[in-house]
Specification:
Number of helices of chain A: 0
Largest sheet of chain A: 6 strands, mixed
Order of helices and strands of chain A: EEEEEEEEEEEE
Structural class of chain B: mainly beta
Oligomer: heterodimer
Number of strands of chain B: 11
Shape of chain A: globular
Radius of gyration of chain B: 13 Å
Radius of gyration of chain A: 13 Å
Strand content of chain B: over 45%
Helix content of chain A: under 10%
Number of helices of chain B: 0
Distance between the termini of chain B: 33 Å
Number of strands of chain A: 12
Order of helices and strands of chain B: EEEEEEEEEEE
């Protein structure tokens, strides 16, 4: 069955430092991959998505993600984190007729 | 803007009661999916409707049911509420045969069962 794994439950980063959030997917075919961000008490906002082509995708708010087929990974990165980036981040995938499947999320804390 | 509206935003119900949550999909999106997000967890797929027919269901009991209307609005109904049903319920709209178009989520309904 399709699954998404986010190994890090909680990450703390200093403001201005770089960030990488990990995501691994499990599916035979190349899925469509997404990263969403959720602020407390809010819904999910799409940061970026990957379907095919260039394996490095750019998203909103300065985020990017790189698809690596050999590692079944789709890690999210940002070169310089801002305090407003503190939130919960979810990686998700869909393939064929399967529903959108989410990882358990990574909570990002940003310290001064 | 999200384009997907959910109501109500918050709701408190008593165990054993029934509840109906509503979702107004983004214009042009013919598919709606419902998710349950327990505190500290990722969203879990409940079911999906495409052109008013259920075409996918997650591991949820039959007391979770839904409807999709011709105007693409939809409802999630939960009967015989249990304490564990307390969660944030999210709906997402998409274009059925184009998953790459992405999913637009509403802000959710926070259900508390006491």
């Amino acid at each position: 069955a399709q699954s998404v794994t986010q190994p890090d439950i909680h990450i703390t980063v200093s403001e201005g430092a770089s960030l990488e959030l990990r995501c691994n997917y499990s599916y035979g075919a190349t899925p469509y991959l997404f990263w969403y961000v959720q602020s407390p008490g809010q819904g999910l906002q799409l940061l970026l998505k990957y379907f095919s082509g260039d394996t490095l995708v750019q998203g909103i708010k300065g985020f990017e993600a790189e698809f690596k087929r050999s590692q079944s990974s789709f890690n999210l990165r940002k070169p310089s984190v801002h305090w407003s980036d503190a939130a919960e981040y979810f990686c998700a995938s869909v393939s064929g007729n399967t529903p959108l499947v989410f990882g358990k999320g990574t909570r990002l804390s940003v310290i001064a | 803007e999200t384009g997907v509206t959910q109501s109500p935003t918050h709701l408190i119900k008593t165990r054993g009661q029934q509840v109906t949550l509503r979702c107004s999909s983004q214009s042009g999106h013919n598919t709606v999916s419902w998710y349950q997000q327990a505190l500290g967890q990722g969203p879990q797929f409940i079911f999906q409707y495409y052109r008013e027919e259920e075409n996918g269901r997650g591991n949820f009991p039959p007391r979770f049911s839904g409807l999709q209307f011709p105007n693409y609005s939809s409802e999630l109904n939960v009967n015989a509420l249990e304490l564990d049903d307390s969660a944030l319920y999210l709906c997402a709209s998409s274009i059925g045969d184009k998953p790459f178009s992405g999913y637009t989520f509403g802000s959710g309904t926070r259900l508390t069962v006491v």
